Amino acid sequence: MRKLLFLIIAGTIIPCFNIAAQDVTTVEAKSVDISENLDLEAIASVFGEAKDLEDFEKKLNDPELQISNLDLNGDGKVDYLRVVETSEKNTHLIAIQAVIGNDQFQDVATVEVEKDEKGETRVQVVGDVYMYGPNYIVQPVYVSPPVIFMFFWGPLYHPWHSPYYWGYYPPYYHPWRPHPTPYYRSNVHLSINVNNSYHRTSVRYSNNAVNLQKQVKRNDYARANPGNSFQKRNKGLKNSNELQRDRNKKAKPAARPGNNDSRPVNKDWKPSGDRKAKPATTNKKAGNKPANKPNTTKPSQKPALTKPAHKPTQKPAATKPAQRPSQRPATTKPASKPGGTHKPAARPTNTYRTKPSPAKKSRPKARRR
């Protein structure tokens, strides 16, 4: 009996666990897309900071930068990205391929560098059609000419073909587990140089690059999974650019409703102490307002706001600014100063009267003659 009960319990628990695991995987498959695990703007930014193609491949696989989050073979580790270059005259095509198995590679993007007749160098990062849909192109405009341009047009140029393959990687590289896609999107933007400009276009400049790509193209993953192309993964969308637009439109309305909810708070505002003091002097002004409102107690209390009425009356009635100008002329100090001037005025009058006195005495002297 004990053995039978144990088998029954074990039989009921195991199927439940398998069902739950299947539900989780289906939700993850619908919520993210393969193309969202490799940002082409980050590739364009890192390309402009590299000194040559060997350094460019090193930056793509740097465990600290973590430019890529791709795990195409599903082994729980981010795939190594190798760089393969081919050129013809003034056109250089750099293919970025994911190493997914023994002699198995998959194109994820290409960097196309071309010099025009004026001597200007143009760069376009083109996403693979299987990964990103057709005509998904990022065109960077660098704030200063990248050093890697000197590598392409300099006398020391030599084509680069990555020597690394499945099971043989450079010493600086060690694989890491892929992150959730939302975390990767927020983390990879730290590696993008914001001083540059990254334009989206659907026009591919170089016709030579299309022919050069045929020489080095590898699509082993696409052949093994023909039903997992971008257009079949995202029906109704042309390329990854439209996928990102739809995601941004769905994310914006969620943050706006909170702004309008704060406006009705003003209805509950009341000055402090309205219900305590109601002076009779404000009844005349307040009595006109509730005349159009129903005879309820609530509207009669609201117009009887006395504090806003007292505040403007008390401010002009303040005597402090009026006393300052009145006290200054009323002071006796300036009055005493002109009064003190009368005393010295009396002194010269006395001297003036004493001077003509000897003139009177001269008259009797004339009579004596």
Number of strands: 6
Tally of helical segments: 18
Mean pLDDT over all positions: 73
**What distance separates the N and C termini?**
180 Å
Largest sheet: 6 strands, antiparallel
Low-pLDDT runs: 1-31, 253-291, 308-314, 316-323, 334-362, 364-369
Structural class: alpha+beta
Which strand-content bin applies to the residues?
Answer: 5-15%
Going across the biggest sheet, name each strand in turn: 1-2-3-4-5-6
Binned, the helix content reads 40-55%
Helix-strand pattern, N to C?
HHHEEEEHEHHEHHHHHHHHHHHH
Radius of gyration: 46 Å
Overall geometric form: globular
How would you sum up this structure, described in words?
With 369 residues, the chain is α+β, with helices and mostly antiparallel strands. It has a domain at 27-251. 44% of the residues lie in helices and 13% in strands. The chain contains 18 helices and six strands. It has helices spanning 2-31, 40-49, 53-60, 129-132, 148-153, 181-188, 207-216, 220-224, 230-233, 240-251, 257-260, 283-288, 297-301, 307-314, 320-330, 333-340, 342-354, 357-368, and strands at residues 80-88, 91-101, 104-115, 121-127, 137-141, 197-201. A six-stranded antiparallel beta sheet has the order 1-2-3-4-5-6, sandwiched between helices. It is globular and about 45 Å long. The relative contact order is 0.10. Mean pLDDT is 73; it is low at 1-31, 253-291, 308-314, 316-323, 334-362 and 364-369.
